[in-house]
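Lab notebook page, bench 4
Experiment: in silico fold of construct C2
Operator: M.H.
Input chain length: 621 residues
Purpose: comparison with the prior construct
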Amino acid sequence: MDNKHSEEEAHPLENTMALAPARNPYDGVPRDWKESGVPPSDEVIPSQVRTIDQREEQLADERRSVFEQVDQGLPASRGMELLGLKKSHFYKLLDDHRNGKNIVRNHKGTPKGGSRTTSGQVAALGKAYDKHYVGPKASISELLTWARRYCERSGEKAVSRHTARRYLYAIPEKDRDRKTLTNEQFSQKYGFKPKKLIIDGLLRRVSMDHTRVDILLVDEFNRDVIIGRPWITMIICDRSRVILGFYLSMETPSLNTVAAALAFAVMNKDSSLFGFVTYPEEYPFFGIPSVIYTDNAAEFTSDAFIQQCQEWGMEWDHRPIGKKWYGGIIERVIGSFMTTSVHFLPGSTGSNVVERQGFESELNAKLDFEQFAEWMLKEITVYHGKIHASLRCTPRQAFTHYKSQGKYDSSRVISKEDETRFLIDFCPTSFGHKVHSYGINFAGRRYASDALEEYVGQNLDVKYLQYDLSYIWVKVPHGFLKISCSYTRDGLAMHWESYSNHKQLSKRMPGLINKASGTIDDEFAPSAMDRQEEILQEAAAMKTAFMNAPKQPALPPPLPPSAEEVALDEVEVHPIDDSKFYVQTDDVIWEEDEILRPRIILDTDEIDLLVPVLIVDPKEG
């Protein structure tokens, strides 16, 4: 016991080394494909096809050999074990062998691989297969329906479903697929593709593609409003499989989204433009690619854009039309992001209509645009740390390994002096913005600088960064002026996509439209406006009633006062009768309460009634 402890103490290093796990020398090193160097061979070696009869003859020979050994003293139990036969069957065959009979098996009934189907039924099945087993909807049921119809016409017995199935599956799968698949699908499945592209360095070729993300996003200000599914444009290095850049947008792919993704891929990620990058070492992948490999979409075939890329040393190459497998690297990566990550987020829609039935996408949607953009960046960081099936290491390790081997051209990195010029070349343009006395209105903000003073009243083009709207570049005759944002408002996002999405959504949904100046927004104002309308209606009704009432004749104009003097002798004197309380003038009797009432004179002959009359009271005599 003591000797054992002393041995362990004497060799502690050896024990430690024995317990240490073995390290794989290829950890962190990509396992690249390379040419094997074996010369091609066209040699064909014929093979012998064994028939059923040949197999039966061979089995009979094996049994004869065992029976001869039994006759020479081999125990019968050992012979049964060698041949795998039961006792009764063994002794029956042994007796037939000893009596010189043929022990080759002769199967009765339909031979293996044969069929009892009549020639008329086979003809009906063939006719139904040729004419009606076509296209993606082809099925055994359709084949069986038409085969029975043809059998009925020819007087044959109707075929069974089992017979139709056996007939169909006896046809090679490739021949069946030729009738049901499209040319593109058939070529994808059976096309021979023996060559493998081998790229010898980083950024020698990158693949670019875009797809619609399988998730519904909500508006950042009104989180119960669905804004739709975003598009993602992704760029991947075909050598190291790192994702150099990507761009999310709610708009369909265009030159702007392609240029934004390319700017993200080329620029150094420690720039302040990419605020979602937490650590500079988190995303150390950047540089100018030598060749950009894409499909033949319109946004990838613009001559002006391709020429602009060539000025920065980037060539453009396109896949052969109709051959999607040439873009397998980027297609596979995007598909993996959808199925292994995005489909587990709230608001996911699945890859197709059938999958979406199991999702409550609209109800579960929670992420807004900026949140999903940051989540996607972090998911790409996770992807860079996963072991890649083709590399046998992580994409980050592969990039670092190739870079240490000198397979990274540092001359294809944008210098600090050229960063601004590169961004101006590839950032989007907004045309025809008027320079006011206070500056330029853009994206709901106001941009101003003393450098704009001489351009007041002119319409100038503006270039902007989708990631950061804190400043813009204004194109003037001698170059571009960098103008910072002087005034903004609360609630305006600094990301162009977020601002643009909310603006477009507001146009479609009246409840989200910003209230214009002069809009009534007070609880007492509506009732006050209603009362104003009632007052106007009452005044109009009163005016209408007055205008529709019967009219009275108009009084003649009063006579001018007479300038002649009236003599007192011409004044008539009428004594007051105490028994009367009225005054009589000619034939008109005025009651006392009517004396002061106005009277309308209709006849001009009555004008003499206006002659003044002096009434004398006798009591005052």
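Observations: The radius of gyration is 52 Å. The first strand starts at residue 206 and ends at 212.
Next step: discuss at group meeting.
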